[in-house]
Amino acid sequence: MGRTWWKDVPVPREFRCARCGELVRVGRRDDRRTRFCSSACEREFWRHRDRYGGEAGPWADGGEREERRGNATNRERRRRIDDAMVMLDAVKEVVEQVQMEEEEAYGNLSENLQRSARGEAIQEASDALCGAAWAIEEALDCLRGASGEE
After folding, report:
1. pTM of the predicted model, to two decimals?
2. Average pLDDT for consecutive 10-residue bins of the chain (150 residues)?
């Protein structure tokens, strides 16, 4: 004679699937499910037990289901990349504007002052700002590649 342990399980009952975290409500006595929402989830769980936290699974404590990979999270990541590109564009504009002001200030100096420590400092600042603008443009190119805009 087979085991009839499921007859001791209360009906109605509810539990979270140990694999996918779906809330399962059982209302019939002949429904034997106590841990998984479907046989497919049960097979996947036992095949890849290490993915789901071993014996208990990540949702055994009743916690909410973790967000799965999918279009929603992909769109969210792309949106965050786009936001970063907008911010970097603004930073690049400021850096280029300050660099032009530095060049203008250097150009307004007399030749003697251009060769002085003050003139050299202005020139070095302008060169550094030019390098920063270039680096920001490189970062923007990388972000465009990551978001698929290239």
Report:
1. 0.51
2. 56 83 84 85 80 54 47 77 88 92 91 90 92 92 81
- Tell me the DSSP string of 48-79: TGGGGTTTT-TTTT-PPPPPPSSHHHHHHHHH
Judge residue 122's burial from the number of C-beta atoms within 10 Å of its C-beta, 0-12 exposed, 13-18 middle, 19 or more buried: buried
Token couple for 29: 């006595």
Torsion of CA 127, 131, 132, 133, to 10 degrees: 100
Strands 13-16 and 23-26: antiparallel
Task: Give Cα separations from 110 to 98, 107, 118, 119 (angstroms).
Answer: 20, 8, 11, 9
- Give the whole-angstrom CA distance, residue 150 versus residue 141: 8
Angle formed at CA 100 by CA 99 and CA 102, multiple of 5 degrees: 65
Among 20, 64, 11, CA closest to 45: 20
Closest by alpha carbon to 18, among 31, 35, 6? Answer: 35
